[in-house]
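Protein folds are increasingly written down as discrete tokens. With that in mind, we are printing a sequence and the tokens encoding its fold.
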Amino acid sequence: MPNAAYYANTTFGRDTYLVVERARITPGDGKFDAGLAALVDPASATSLTNFTAGLSGSPRRVKEKFGFLAPSQTTPIFAYVTL
């Protein structure tokens, strides 16, 4: 079970991020990948970002087993890179 005090510690606890190319999760884009979009969609039951209660094999249970806390936010953050 996750230890909230450990993750709140600035030395050991830290946020994790899922980083994907925006075009790959934007419907209508030529690079769109529906499978990847579903994996990072917090509304999807099988999403890697979904922490709703579920069955023993649900993504939430797997993440909890590895010690991750529920995310403090699920709003996507978009970064822009200029080449």
Remarks:
- The chain has a mean pLDDT of 76.
- The chain has one domain: 4-65.
- The CA atoms of residues 21 and 82 lie 14 Å apart.
